[in-house]
């Protein structure tokens, strides 16, 4: 059996009760933290809280050479964990299909996701979001600006009046000069706002920092203004709103300190 477990958004306590019980019942527990991480806990915290040993796999060991995970799941009960939800944004459908092809039973125990938290914390209605995008560090795509695919997706959403959730790049194990096992880099919302302000300086943006933590930050302003602010420790996200329902506009003023003058434009 291979059980995919979403650990939630913040620390070792963010996993659901169902997920916690599955972790403790597993013969072996694998995890990856290259696509996201729990900013309020490390592997030692997870192990101590749940009485488990966690085997952390890098991208190569999950996406290209997952045989150790699959072989263990053929022999016993295995848990595979990520921050958030294992099948939303951090998608491991390929690993699940490989398991199914080998006759291994699988199941998914969901965790709270950044996607749902973005809607919940900002007051922006979930069904008014369009296609989400990931904004990479410029060095990651060989350019010095925002990739055309990101611009096109945001513009397509705006034309339909939809909000865009912008996930911000995380680089673990690789840096500007190539593979580096000690490299960890998390794009900040201010950096992202600065990149996007080149094309949309006066447009409204909404920052969400440390969703799921005891002290999340939600801030709305023009992208050019957000670029000059700091929002503390990672992880950060950014939303580019589309057309706002009056309740959404009121929520951004009340929950994110959006300038009313920006919303009136």
Automatic annotation (TrEMBL):
Q: Which residues cross the membrane?
A: none
Q: Which residues bind S-adenosyl-L-methionine?
A: 9, 85, 88, 113-114, 168, 211, 236
Q: Which residues belong to any copy of the Tetrapyrrole methylase domain?
A: 1-226
GO biological process, any: protein histidyl modification to diphthamide
Q: Name one Pfam family in it.
A: TP_methylase
- SUPFAM superfamilies given for it? Tetrapyrrole methylase (SSF53790)
Q: Which family would the database say this protein is a member of?
A: Belongs to the diphthine synthase family.
- Report the protein name in the record: Diphthine synthase
């Amino acid at each position: 059996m291979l059980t995919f477990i979403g650990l939630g958004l913040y620390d070792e306590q963010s996993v659901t009760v169902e997920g916690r019980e599955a972790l403790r019942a597993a013969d072996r527990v694998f995890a990856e933290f290259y696509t996201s991480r729990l900013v309020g806990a490390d592997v030692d915290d997870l192990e101590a809280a749940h009485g488990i040993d966690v085997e952390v796999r890098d991208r190569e060991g999950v996406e290209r050479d997952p045989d150790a995970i699959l072989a263990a799941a053929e022999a016993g009960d295995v848990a595979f964990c990520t921050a958030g939800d294992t099948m939303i944004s951090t998608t491991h459908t390929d690993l699940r299909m490989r398991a199914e092809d080998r006759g291994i039973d699988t199941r998914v125990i969901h965790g709270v996701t950044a996607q749902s938290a973005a809607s919940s914390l900002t007051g922006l209605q979930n069904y008014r979001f369009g296609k989400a995008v990931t904004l990479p560090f410029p060095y990651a795509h060989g350019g010095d600006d925002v990739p055309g695919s990101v611009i096109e997706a945001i513009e397509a959403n705006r034309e339909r009046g939809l909000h865009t959730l912008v996930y911000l790049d995380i680089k673990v194990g690789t840096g500007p000069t190539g593979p580096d096992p000690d490299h960890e880099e998390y794009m900040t919302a201010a950096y992202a706002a600065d990149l996007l302000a080149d094309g949309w300086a006066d447009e409204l943006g909404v920052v969400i920092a440390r969703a799921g933590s005891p002290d999340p930050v939600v801030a709305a302003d023009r992208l050019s203004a957000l670029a000059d602010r700091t929002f503390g420790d990672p992880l950060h996200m950014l939303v580019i709103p589309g057309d706002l329902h009056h309740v959404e506009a009121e929520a951004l003023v009340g929950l994110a300190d959006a300038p009313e003058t920006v919303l009136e434009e």
